[in-house]
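Two quick folds needed for the group meeting slides. Do the first one here.
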Amino acid sequence: MTNLGRMGPLDGWGGVSPARRAAVRRRAGALMLFSVMS
């Protein structure tokens, strides 16, 4: 669960804006929900 939010090169950057991080987390959450419901 936690790994989903840390995937991708975005997390490797130290200057990632919070908004961008939130978008990535939202996308990961949506993917998780989608896989669970399908």
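Then this one, please, same format:
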Amino acid sequence: MPLPRGDFQRRFKNRLGLAPLCAHSTTVFSAADWRSHRPRVLTCYNVASNYPVSSPCPLGVPVMKGRPRYLAIAVGVLLLILIALPFFISVNSFRPVIERQLSSGLGRQVHVGNLSLSIFSGGLSAEDLSISDDPNFNKSSFLTAKSLKIGVELWPLITSKTLNITGLTIEKPEVILMRNRQGEWNFSTLATDSSNRPAVAKSAGRAPPEFTVSQLKLEKGRVTIGSTVSDKKSVYDNVDLEATNLSVKSQFPVKLTANLPGGGGFKADGTVGPVNRADASLSPLDAKLTISGLDLAKTGFVDPSAGIAGIVDVTNRLQSKNGLARTQGSVKMNKLQLVRGGAPSGVPVSVDFNIDYDLRKSMGVLNQAIVKIGNAVARLSGTIDRRGESTLLDMKLDGQNLPVHDLQAALPAFGVILPKGSSLETGTLSANLNIQGPLDKLVTAGNVGVFNGKLAGFDMGSKMGALSTFSGMQKGGGHTSIEKLTTNLRVAPEGIQLANLDLVMPAMGQLTGGGTISSSHELNLKMLATLNAQSGLASTLRSLTGRGLSKNIRIPFRIEGTSADPKFVPDVGAMVGGEDSELGNRLDSNPQTKGLSDVLGGLLGGKKGKNK
């Protein structure tokens, strides 16, 4: 809209004492009003009447004096200068300086790609970044990234072309962490006085400058962890690291998060430093670590064929100083499975632990960990050896008078499967076990005993068929009562071995023997049922032979089938046909009962003896 009075009305009328006109009418502002009220939009005065107009300026156009206008012009000019600066500063000339500073501080050759300057973000950007690895581990890079942002102090850069780095942000880096047979890591020589420092750091003839930066970030990275003696690798994605006030000579805070292989997450929050100038991996550390949803079968640290599986949550605090570390916390394992052919535990297994670990020797000691399964509590202690290709365990598990009702849902994790439809209702379990070997090939051996137990839903007397009837064994009425069950146990990847098995049941007597349970739960047990001379079978034989036996009757039988569906097969041929069988000799020596041993074997479904 054109102004009625023309452009001259927009100028100051100092001699008339008038301020500039507003933009919508033939009015001006009083200079006195301007001084007294100071608003951006003032009351309009009519030029002709010099009376205030009752309504404010409808267009809302503020009155601008000369000084704000000049300020706006100055700001615009400054913005133009800032936009044009990157075209006048050759930032690529700083590449050698940046590479030299980073190489000297890290002790590794650092390569930085083409640089660009962003005034508004306050720093430089590089297209590529690579940090060399320790030549004793790898000839390729320790870290590579497609983008690097470098925070710098702009004023020294603009005025004197002095480069002062304040921050580093590495986007989507890929990092390789390697460990050798001696337990040394490839990052051990980072920021140290190692002989592997690059030539640019040595040529100055003095100690390398201290590496300091206000903020270091790694965003959305990938870390691959492996060993020089194994092809196994674990990959961690979405790794974010943030360190502030980073200095090799002082302690600095660090935060780290990552996605675990196969799912789950890792968090660390604590402090690191000062950096050990001989071995960075021995630098002091104090951090709270949290692991959630770790899938043991997908970690890459154990062979999937080992059968080890489960979902693990860990909360602990890790402290290390002078190469000695201590970690204390708790681990909760859901759906735990420890042997091939086992099944996931139906209840969580938790462990409260305290570990002392020697970082130089790659060995640790587990101090009296508490293992909890429901109300069952056992103690675990031993050593951890990570010097070789596989982690070696040497542990002792001690549990006394543990309620079997709480344990039964966890038994499948150890490869122990109860007969189908059965359950342990009462009783206690005691165990003294040694757990030894590589993590993926553990062997558990020791003594196990169940006392005063009741196996509901399984009647062993009825399962033994003709043997039970002939010998006078009583049926259990739908369950099996166990006075005592003890055995020497060995659990290995190939299956379970039982030796010196001793089972005492009120309804049957004593059963002894041993055998194997394969990883597919196939049973192969050789047993002896010992009956005293006053049993029903002894009375029957007394009438046949004319006199009683001088010792208790031992009936051999086998347990076959599977753990879920066991089959009891009498081996009467061994009972009446063995060379030292008093029963067989007595039957064959009597003309009236000669050949009865064959009949007895056929009756019980067993093998014939000497007369076959």
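Slide caption for protein two: The first helix runs from residue 31 to 37.
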